[in-house]
Every structure is written in structure tokens, then in C-alpha cells.
Design a protein that fits this description.
218 residues, 5'-nucleotidase,  domain 2, four-stranded mixed beta sheet, 34% helix
Length: 218
Amino acid sequence: IDSSFTTVDSIQKFIQPFHDRVESILDSTLAYAPFVISKTDGKFNTTAGNLMADIVLSETNPIFKKRTGHNIDMVLLNHGGIRSIISKGNVTSRTAYEVMPFENSVVVVELKGESLMKMVEYLIHSKRAHPIAGAQLILNKNNTVKAFTVNGKPIDKNKSYYVATSDYLVTGGDNMGFFKDAISKMETDYKIRNAMIDFFSKVDTLAPKVDLRYYQLQ
């Protein structure tokens, strides 16, 4: 060992300011949650799922429209991709990393209405609150479809729809094989987590609700 040897302590002292800066950015307050936002507070849709899907729609659509001239029609994510609650209180960038620790990016696929009906069958049989936005699915008591609309209109099996999802799901992840029917696919290179941080930076208070985007008649 000679004078060129660098001690662990000196490396730590060099790194510490950068570490402290990153921690400061992660913990700076972006928004406020007046209640716990969870993926388990509803049967067919949840506050966390609705928030995630709505964020992907609102934050990605301007990017997609600028590149293609089209609007995103709907969003489908997966329930299992939400990894944490959002606790009541201050919402930070660290919150986004806790909820979405994966490096998943938004992908927009073009699907025919016929493939969207396969999506509906998947949602019914999965019996999980997979997050959706831009669409409404109403089930009868016997789990048959009462209505399925996108942008408030019934599905046209021959029409093309633009569906935003994750790069994991578009390859058939979580058994979402219907995405393999895609006519076209656009990689946005926009991480879902970054979309969350961008959204948190724009709003004062998060107020997602369990609503009627996906429910069953009683």
C-alpha cells in the first residue's frame, strides 16, 4: 500500500454530497395525498389503479399526439405493477419510485375493436382490478358484458383504437396475449414513473376515486 491508495472514508466523503443531493430531490414535496391511495380499496377499480391509468393517459397523450396526430383512446395497465400504497401526507419523487420501482415505459399499440373484445374477456376472467382509463366496462350479475365503451362510444370491431400500456404488458406479460394482435406499436421512451413525477409536479392535491369505469350491476 502506498500513498496512491484511496481509503474508503475518502471515497465516502467524495460521494456524500452527491448522495445528499439525490436524497434531497427524492424527498422534496410535489403534491399532497389527503387519504391513503391503495390498489385494494375496490373490487373492479381502485384509487391507486385509477390514478395510475389516468396519469398515463394525461401525461402520454400530448407526446403521442405530437408524434402521430392521433389521440390515445384508452389505457390498460396491470394490478400487479402497483407495488405500494401512497400514504396520506406529502407526495414526493420517492413516492413514485415506491409505487413503480420498475423501469417500465409507456408503449401505445393500435388494436382493432375485435382485439379490444379479447381484452374485455381477459378483464372479466382475471377477476382483478387492472387499471383502465378512457373506457367503461359494465358487467351483468352473471359476469356477462352489459356495456363496453371507449370515449363514451360502443366498440366498432373494425375500427382501430390506440391503447397505452407498458412495455412489459405489450409483449404478453401478465397473460395479456391480445396485445400481440397489435397492428402498430409506438415506443414513447417515457417511463411510467416519470409520468407520475410529472403529474405530481403539476397538481396540489391527489384526489382519485373508486368510480364507475369498471363495475358490476347488483
